[in-house]
Amino acid sequence: MKTLYIECNMGAAGDMLLASLAELTGDVKACGEMLNSLGIPDVTYDFEKSVKCGIEGTHARVTALGVEEDEHLHEHGEHHHEEHHHEHTHEEHVHTHEHEHHHHHTHMSDIENIINGLNVSDKVKSDALAVYALIAEAESRAHGKPVTEIHFHEVGTMDAVADIVGVCVLMELIGADRIVASPLATGFGQVRCAHGILPVPAPATASIIEGIPTYSGNVEGELLTPTGAALLKHFAGSFGPRPAMAISKTGYGMGKKDFEKANMLRTFLGEEQNEDDDKVIEMSCNVDDMTGEEIGYATGVLMNSGALDVFTTPVYMKKNRPGILITCIVRPEDKEKFAKLIFENTTTIGIRYTAMDRFRLSRREEKVMTKFGEVSVKVSEGFGVTKAKPEYDDVAGIVGKS
Question: How far is CA 111 from its chain centroid?
Answer without folding.
Answer: 18
